[in-house]
TrEMBL record:
The lineage of its organism: Archaea, Methanobacteriati, Methanobacteriota, Stenosarchaea group, Halobacteria. One of its GO terms (biological process) is DNA repair. SUPFAM superfamilies: HAD-like. This is Phosphoglycolate phosphatase. InterPro entries: HAD-like_hydrolase_sf (IPR050155), HAD-like_sf (IPR036412), HAD_sf (IPR023214), PGP-like_dom2 (IPR023198). It comes from the Archaea. One of its GO terms (molecular function) is phosphoglycolate phosphatase activity.
């Protein structure tokens, strides 16, 4: 089975292991829109929240929104406890991680002030031997730097085989750039995403890796 094929596993968080209720996402983008003087449609909010179009900054620029204006407004409108309470765990993610007998790490674009409360609320912090939150200083996926940082934290030995599982093209890019395999879990469907994301494994649910 795939679960026995790797010496260590890395995961993305949002959209891969967990997701937020749509009502929370819609409310955040309503308030961000008020700050920026621009309304975000449901489709725009979904694209940015899930990274459906790939790199979010490139998408913002395409829509005429300066990333340096958007991100401070976005983070200012995210309340850690409210976000945590609106977040749910995917059942297939719990089934997969529970079967792993190997070091497990998290590499996420979700910022530390949000990641901690989410993991605590869902009682899954002990799933991970390391948690790496991307930053401007550390880098953003598909930059391999955050992945390599997680590998160092795990004490991965040279020659070890590893994999990163995520729901976006940036996750697979980060995996490949760091010399790992990439598992893409498609939570939305390529027709809704607007593109097909490649990967060493492409699944609709992590149950496909178990059964």
């Amino acid at each position: 089975m795939v679960v026995d094929s790797y010496d260590f596993w890395l995961f993305d968080l949002d959209g891969t292991l967990v997701d937020a209720e749509w009502s929370y996402t819609r409310d955040v983008f309503d308030r961000v829109g008020d700050r920026l003087g621009r309304r975000f449609s449901d489709r725009e909010a979904e694209i940015l929240w899930h990274g459906l179009g790939g790199a979010r900054n490139a998408q913002l620029v395409e829509w005429g929104i300066a990333p340096e204006d958007f991100w401070p407004a976005f983070h200012a409108e995210e309340d850690p406890q409210t976000r945590a309470e609106a977040t749910f765990l995917h059942d297939d993610a719990a089934d997969l991680v529970g079967r792993l007998d190997a070091p497990v790490g998290l590499v996420t674009h979700c910022q530390a002030f949000l990641t901690g409360p989410v993991l605590q609320h869902l009682d899954i912090r002990d799933w991970f031997d390391t948690v790496v939150c991307c930053t401007e200083e550390l880098g953003w996926k598909p930059d391999p730097a955050p992945v390599r940082h997680a590998m160092r934290d795990l004490g991965v030995e040279e020659g070890s085989t590893g994999v990163l599982a995520g729901d976006g093209a940036n996750d697979i890019g980060a995996a490949w750039n760091a010399g790992l395999d990439g598992i893409h879990v498609e939570r939305h469907g390529p027709e809704h995403r607007g593109q097909c994301v490649l990967g060493d494994y492409r699944v609709g649910t992590f149950h496909d890796l178990i059964n």
